[in-house]
């Protein structure tokens, strides 16, 4: 299953990497692709959307499904 969430506040490649790493830590995530220009993160796996949003917010960014 693939889930796309909106991520606001990314301004550089390091931001993308930080968000990607945070999402990869969520249980059930198998793959992540982050695009700061589109303000989106695509996540494959069976992770709970609430957990994904929380992981991004814990990393210091605004997120919503």
General description of the model:
This protein is an alpha+beta fold and 65 residues long. It has a single domain, classed as 2-Layer Sandwich (Alpha-Beta Plaits), CATH 3.30.70. The protein has 2 helices and 4 strands. The protein has a 4-stranded antiparallel sheet. A hairpin with a 4-residue loop joins strand 2 and strand 3. The protein is globular. The mean pLDDT is 97.
Strand order of the largest sheet: 2-3-1-4
Biggest sheet: strands, sense, closure? Answer: 4 strands, antiparallel
CATH architecture field: 2-Layer Sandwich
Helix coverage percent: 25-40%
Task: Tell how many strands the DSSP assignment holds.
Answer: 4
Radius of gyration: 10 Å
Put simply, the count of helices is: 2
| Number of domain modules | 1
Order of helices and strands: EHEEHE
User: Within the CATH hierarchy, at the fold level, what is the topology?
Assistant: Alpha-Beta Plaits
Detail the poorly predicted runs. Answer: none
Gross geometry: globular
pLDDT averaged residue by residue: 97
In the CATH scheme, the class would be Alpha Beta
Share in β-strands: 35-45%
SS class: alpha+beta
Distance between the termini: 14 Å
InterPro entries: HMA_dom (IPR006121), HMA_dom_sf (IPR036163)
GO molecular function: metal ion binding
Keywords: Metal-binding, Plasmid
Pfam family, one: HMA
